[in-house]
Structures are given as structure tokens and as C-alpha cells.
Amino acid sequence: MPHLAAVWIYPIKALDGLAISTARMTPAGSLEGDRRFAMLDAEGKVINGKRDPRVHLLRCSFDDDLSTVTLNSEPFRLTADLKPLEARLSDHFGQAVHLAENREAGFPDDTDSPGPTVISQATLEEVASWFPGLTGQEMRARVRPNLVVGGVSAFWEDRLYAGEGQTVPFRIGDVLVQGVNPCQRCVVPPRNPLTGESIPGFQKTFAERRERTLPVWAERSRFNHFYRLSVNTRIPESETGKMIKVNDPVDVMAR
Length: 255
What we know:
By secondary structure, this protein is of the alpha+beta class. Helices cover about 15% and strands about 25% of the residues. The protein has a domain of about 150 residues. It contains 4 helices and 15 strands. A hairpin with an 8-residue loop joins β1 and β2. It is globular. The two termini are about 20 Å apart.
């Protein structure tokens, strides 16, 4: 049966994720703690893998309550003065870095559909098989989804969107989620998340295989190109404060 196999948040946008067992819905329709912080340059622009591949050289881990981040083996407080962490990041990037915080909404990639991104474990493993030596776990680190669904076939999540302007309702446990569209990928997935080294021809191979394996249940009109994977979502305001947890059933609702 479809079930929630894993939940991931990325407390500092563009950096390593944190696997959690439960997640609370925010009023903004995101997962609490996800993209709570963002690294900004002097012009207020987000520093991420799209703009600066040096993000791949930063390894970080978080306490469960997000009070501390350990960055390349050095601990920093996230609930006190952020200047020491900002100084460390500024040194790494060779420019002034400000760490902005938004506890309510975070800093989502897609402000129109700020809900958690969804993909199946089978999809991660299938796409990894297109590139010699990759594993499903490494593909997850490249694609950076929030919710991983187990107990389903590859590309099951392509059921979670419909035509332009439509949404597909589904439930994760007691939480109502609206599937919106297949997520457009960027320059990050071709890169090794630990080194930044890129796989030659990744995007071309990906798009060719994605088109070839697109399931019959996918709404093909949503693909102006085939460099798309995982599903963007919205969470209605009515779901604020509700919780999802690993092993919750995932049910696509009749429209």
C-alpha cells in the first residue's frame, strides 16, 4: 500500500537535509523547519547550488530541534547570535553572507506551490539506474524531495497532477495535500552532492529516458520538456498545525 516512507527537511536552503519522523504543517503550507534559513549575498540574493557550486563542499548536520548546526565538523548555534555562522559562511564563499530566517514560511523554491515536494522511492531507484554507479539514496540527495512514498511503482507520483489550473487532492494520514505540477529541475541534479562534480550529458540522458518511460497516467500536457521530476504541492490553510509521520498511508482522492 502507498505509505510515507521518509520525510526530509532542508533547514538551511541549499545545504544538507535532515531526515525526520514527523512534520507539522505551517500556516504558509510548508513543513515546519524546511528552508527556514537562507544564505543571502550583499545584494540579498539567495546563495544556492544554481549560483555557486561551492555549496556542495559544505557538509552539515542538525540537532533534531534545529538549535544547532554542525558545519564541516564545527558546531554553531541557530537559536542565538548567528554572526559566528555567518562569518564561517562568508569565509567559505569569499563574500559577505547574511543568514536570513523565516520561521513561518521558510524560503520555498516555488512560491506559488510552497508545499512539500513528493516522489516515490521506486522513482529514485529507477532514475539512478539510468546513470552507472548511482544509487537511489544519492539520487534523493541530488533531487532533494521532502516526501518519499514507498509501496508503489516508479513514477507513481505522476498521478498527482492534472491539466493546467487543476490540482489533484490526496491525503497523507489526516493531512490534505493538493498535487499541482511536475517539478522542473535545475543545474544541481547532475552534480555529485558531496563534490560538485557533474555527470556529462546528464540532462540530455535524463530527458530522453524520462520521455521514454513517462507512464500512461501522467498528464503529458504538463511537459513542455522532460527535465521534470517529483511533484510540487500546496497544503490548504485548513491543515495548519496538523502532523504527518513516517508510515502514514497515502491515498489519492476521487476528483
